[in-house]
Amino acid sequence: MPFVQLHFLTVYPPSNPNRDDMGRPKTAVYGGVHRLRLSSQSLKRAARLSPAMSEALKGNMGERTQRLGDEVMKHLRERGADDGKAREIAQQVAAVFGKLDTEAKKKNPDHVRIRQLAFISPDERQAAMEMAERVLTGESLDKEARNRGKNILRAADGAVDLAMFGRMLADAPDFNREAAVQVSHAITTHQAEVEDDYYTAADDLKKPAEDMGAGFVGEAGFGSGVYYLYVCIDTARLVENLENDRALARKALEAVTEAFATSSPSGKRNSYSHHTRASYIRAEAGDQQPRSLAAAFLNPVRTEDLLGESINRLRKTADTIDQAYGASVDESAEMDLVGGSGTLAEIKAFVARQVGDA
Questions:
Q1: Backbone angles phi, psi at 238, to 5 degrees
Q2: What is the pTM assigned to this prediction?
Q3: Is residue 168 part of a domain?
Q4: DSSP string of 288-343, one letter each residue
Q5: Could you tell me if residue 220 is inside a domain?
Q6: Are residue 189 and residue 323 in the same domain, yes or no?
């Protein structure tokens, strides 16, 4: 089965979808100039939470949380367990996924949480609840919670987001999952700077006779531009992570393609309403070594037609690499809003058929 590579060009209006520690848009220096940047983490989370994935793959999506122990304790209390017993069992079950957070327990005795965020599949969640119920009815607890990991943790199952984006469990490395989907940071194809927005808020009850000053004065950063995003999918790894369920793998490929085309990080969305859609998608498939086309923008686009020239650069770079190294992919498909060709449905069908029936 081949690699699927996806290249997106998406126009963002003035917005601040992914903030740094100062609350300003994230940036990067590339090709000697400043670019605006969207982190891969923010893009993956936006994709996971988008309707394209969360609704289309309902029942096959995991949870990233520190709080499974809280859920186990609540589950046992609803089945008649007293607080002490429920807490004891919840601690043992939660410890399968990582070290317990003793500070959280000090703040609130009802908190049974682990230190790290753990990616938990629906099957693992169900197994954890079933294990807790068995212990409640008299099954003995092991001394080491990790020894029971094989009864709860899964090396592969039907959790699509775990299959795609992987996970790392420091205390149970046998159940780590190698990500089938690699996601780049998205950067603007051109030079872009963070701009400052000086804003005020008025006090509705302030009388005209009082001073004319605002009730609040603030400052925020924003930026805009054409972003390039590269996604590489190892379809063989995806199928393996999904326990060889090819039908689910095809559905997952369609969903994640639509998600990256239609979703965006949600930072400051109420202030800027940056509901974006990709203006250009290039989908590729082949067994050859994957390659990003980010080199197309090392020299920043400087024309007035930023989107059109970005599309031209992307195509030219792909052709140039093929001329130098030989064919980089076996086949490709495009959706181009500028040229008026291709559809998202065609792109989704293209990526889905890369996973055969056998």
A1: -60, -45
A2: 0.90
A3: no
A4: SPP---GGGGSS---SS-HHHHHHHHHHHHHHHHHHHHS-S-SEEEEEETTTTB--
A5: no
A6: yes
* Pairing mode, strands 181-183 and 216-234: antiparallel
Q: What is the mean pLDDT of each successive set of 10 residues along the chain, which is 358 residues long?
A: 94 95 94 98 96 95 91 90 87 87 79 88 91 84 55 88 92 88 98 89 78 76 96 97 96 98 94 95 97 98 97 98 97 97 98 87
Q: Which of 231, 54, 237, 232 is nearest to 163 (CA)?
A: 237
Residue with tokens 């984006």: 165
Instruction: Of 64, 49, 53, give the one whose Cα is nearest residue 119.
Output: 64
Q: How many domains does the chain have?
A: 2
Full domain range(s) for residue 255: 3-58+180-193+230-347
In a domain, 205, yes or no: no
Beta carbons of 333 and 342 less than 8 angstroms apart: yes
What is the SS3 assignment for 117? coil
Percent helix, strand and coil across the chain, each to the nearest 5: 40, 25, 40
Question: What is the enclosing helix (H) or strand (E) of 143?
Answer: none
